[in-house]
Amino acid sequence: MIATILVTASYIAAQMLADITSLKIVSIFGMSVDAGTLIYPLTFTIRDLVHKVAGRRAARIIILTAAVINLGMAGLFWIVSQLPYDPSAGPQPDWNAVLAPVWRIVIASILAEIFSELADTEIYHLWVTRITSRYQWLRVLVSNAVSVPMDSLIFVWAAFGGVLPTPVVWEIFGANILLKGAFTLISLPSIYLVREKPEEK
User: Fold this and answer.
1) How many Å apart are CA 88 and CA 196, to the nearest integer?
2) What is the pLDDT of residues 172-191, one digit of tens each?
3) For position 198, what pLDDT does the model report?
4) Does residue 198 lie within any of the structural domains?
5) In total, how many domains does the chain have?
6) What is the pLDDT of residue 126?
7) Which residues, other chains included, contact 73 with Cβ-Cβ below 8 Å and sequence gap of 6+?
8) How confident is the model at residue 200, as a pLDDT?
9) Which residue positions in the chain have pLDDT lower than 50?
10) Which of 28-31's residues contact partners 24+ apart within 8 Å by CB, and which partners?
11) Residue 163: partners with Cβ closer than 8 Å, 6 or more residues away
């Protein structure tokens, strides 16, 4: 029960932080990349932990729940951005410039999360039920090998296609793949942190 609560909370938190930080494009090792890439790759492995400890149905539910929460968060940020500053509070930093949602990026992010994480769930499930329940690190590697490129492709083109120059969009895509792939390799051992729930067929 405690493990389920911890991995679920971690997944939601990582999704929210990734969506907020994706609003900024940064340069890492000379590559253009949305800053959400610094945290978002962890969600794939955390999703695997949810799947392992609570099953496929729970993994699907948490993916859709995270999407609804992120959409609600963006909606709240938009409402706050429309409210006037209180002059009696003195000078305030331009909150709107930082956190007011860019709806195209919000929608692109949520769509990429839903499709790629659901694909990750099904591949993980098929691996465990049809191939082997051994080599837990390999099930994470295989499912992420499909979901990471899918997520990056959907996000960068839905968010930046036609807005940024095409070479920059492809550069963001390539940087996403490299960074998410590196995070996948680093996070592989974490799959052993929780006990496995028997997988439904």
Assistant:
1) 56
2) 888 888 888 888 888 888 88
3) 65
4) no
5) 1
6) 93
7) 16, 19, 20
8) 61
9) none
10) 28/175, 28/179, 31/171, 31/172, 31/174, 31/175, 31/178
11) 104
User: pTM, whole model, 2 decimals?
Assistant: 0.86
Residue 81 class from Cβ within 10 Å (0-12 exposed, 13-18 middle, 19+ buried)?
A: middle
Task: Please count the residues of the chain.
Answer: 201
- Report residue 30 as tokens: 């000379």
Query: Does residue 200 sit within a domain?
Result: no
- Is 8 contained in some domain? yes
Pair 186, 160: CB distance under 8 Å: no
> Domain residues for 132?
2-20+34-193
Residue 58 covered by a domain: yes
HSE (side-chain half, CA atoms, 13 Å) at 87:
0
The answer to whether 69 and 18 are in contact (CB under 8 A) is no
Q: Would the CA dihedral through 169, 174, 180, 182 be positive or negative? A: negative
Asked if 120 and 144 count as a contact pair (C-beta separation under 8 A), the reply is: yes
